[in-house]
């Protein structure tokens, strides 16, 4: 690659703004990257001024990260096509539910050799009803490869410069070093693996497990019980990958995308917060989502539903008792007490589609 690469960011929430700080600083000091980074911003009016105007004049995203300054080479646009049309690397950091429509808007309007990177954790339905990882949805819609960046990286802590880690799943060898150099900083360690599906699934399934941890917090159960939820959830994550995405490497589960993201999410995550409030208030999840996280998307109940559909199609609900129990608590078909019962009576073996491994 002799030409400088153009980078754009699609999204302007907490995590998009945080990662824009790293990306902006890195491209400004790179010999292989264009120094300007376009960022797509959903236009809003804040105190009589357009958000894009505020960002481009003050370099502060006052809506989502008001205490942090963006590099001046981050340029906000309110049109996603204008943002992305010249980009060689498209970084997606929008809510999962917006990905499908965003990609439809961009179809045929991005470079045919562009490379996408998804920072989004979750499954989503395609138009034909198939349940896909977000990176797979982007690849299917835009007809370009898509890597992922996920891990134990709470946006506010990363923005403060506290040490954090992330995992990049990238199958394209020529982009491994490029993406690592694009996202890393002195306080943000990035590890790259080509086990991309496993990277993404680990950070997706932790949405369910952290919701379960929040249920335990709401019921004021002890830390031992919460530890049991984390252990069982990690075990079922191993099983799920083995059944639905075989061929992944065990080591990937112990990267930031796996064990560390899981543990952190079970103590500091909006899914955990939502579940705790669900137990303590008795209010419907739909109402609590609006009250507690109006500008974000808590994915615990959504992911639990989609995973349950996948398990049910294969007749595997009983082989994944924690995932199944959390889903049924979400929809009201199981009482909260069933959570501890599930931990108490779950079988201690790992299901495999062809055989069973005894622990």
From TrEMBL:
Its EC number is 1.1.1.8. The keyword Amino-acid biosynthesis does not apply. Pathway: Phospholipid metabolism; alpha-glycerophosphate cycle; Lipid metabolism. NAD(+) binds at residues 98, 155, 270. SUPFAM superfamilies: 6-phosphogluconate dehydrogenase C-terminal domain-like, NAD(P)-binding Rossmann-fold domains. Substrate binds at residues 121, 270-271. GO terms for molecular function: glycerol-3-phosphate dehydrogenase (NAD+) activity; NAD binding; protein homodimerization activity. Keywords: NAD, Oxidoreductase. Residues 195-340 form the Glycerol-3-phosphate dehydrogenase NAD-dependent C-terminal domain. Residues 7-174 form the Glycerol-3-phosphate dehydrogenase NAD-dependent N-terminal domain. One of its GO terms (biological process) is glycerol-3-phosphate catabolic process. It catalyses: sn-glycerol 3-phosphate + NAD(+) = dihydroxyacetone phosphate + NADH + H(+). GO terms for cellular component: cytosol. Belongs to the NAD-dependent glycerol-3-phosphate dehydrogenase family. PANTHER family: GLYCEROL-3-PHOSPHATE DEHYDROGENASE, GLYCEROL-3-PHOSPHATE DEHYDROGENASE [NAD(+)]-RELATED. Homodimer. This is Glycerol-3-phosphate dehydrogenase [NAD(+)]. The lineage of its organism: Eukaryota, Metazoa, Ecdysozoa, Arthropoda, Hexapoda.
């Amino acid at each position: 690659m002799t030409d400088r690469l153009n980078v754009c960011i699609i999204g302007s929430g907490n995590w998009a703004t945080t990662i824009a700080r790293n990306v902006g600083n890195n491209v400004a000091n790179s010999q292989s990257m264009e120094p300007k980074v376009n960022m797509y911003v959903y236009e809003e009016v804040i105190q009589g001024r357009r958000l894009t105007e505020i960002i481009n004049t003050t370099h502060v995203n006052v809506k989502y990260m008001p205490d942090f300054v963006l590099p001046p080479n981050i340029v906000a646009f309110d049109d996603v096509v204008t943002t992305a049309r010249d980009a060689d690397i498209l970084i997606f950091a929008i809510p999962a539910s917006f990905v499908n429509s965003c990609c439809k808007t961009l179809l045929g309007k991005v470079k045919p050799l562009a490379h996408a990177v998804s920072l989004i954790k979750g499954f989503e339905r395609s138009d034909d009803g198939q349940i896909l990882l977000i990176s797979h949805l982007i690849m299917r819609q835009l007809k370009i490869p898509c890597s992922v960046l996920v891990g134990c990286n709470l946006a506010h802590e990363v923005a403060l410069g506290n040490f954090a880690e992330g995992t990049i799943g990238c199958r394209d060898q020529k982009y491994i070093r490029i993406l690592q150099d694009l996202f890393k900083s002195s306080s943000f360690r990035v590890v790259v693996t080509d086990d991309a599906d496993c990277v993404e699934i680990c950070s997706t399934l932790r949405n369910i497990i952290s919701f379960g941890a929040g249920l335990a917090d709401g019921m004021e159960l002890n830390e031992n019980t919460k530890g049991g939820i984390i252990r069982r959830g990690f075990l079922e994550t191993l099983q799920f990958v083995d059944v639905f995405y075989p061929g992944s490497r065990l080591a990937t589960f112990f990267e930031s995308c796996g064990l560390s993201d899981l543990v952190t999410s079970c103590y500091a995550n909006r899914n955990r917060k939502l579940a705790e409030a669900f137990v303590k208030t008795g209010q419907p999840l739909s109402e609590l989502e609006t009250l507690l996280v109006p500008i974000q998307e808590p994915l615990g109940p959504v992911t639990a539903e989609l995973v349950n559909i996948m398990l049910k199609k294969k007749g595997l609900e009983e082989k994944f008792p924690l995932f199944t129990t959390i889903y049924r608590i979400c929809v009201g078909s199981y009482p909260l007490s069933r959570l501890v019962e599930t931990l108490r009576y779950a079988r201690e073996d790992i299901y495999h589609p062809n055989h069973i491994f005894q622990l």
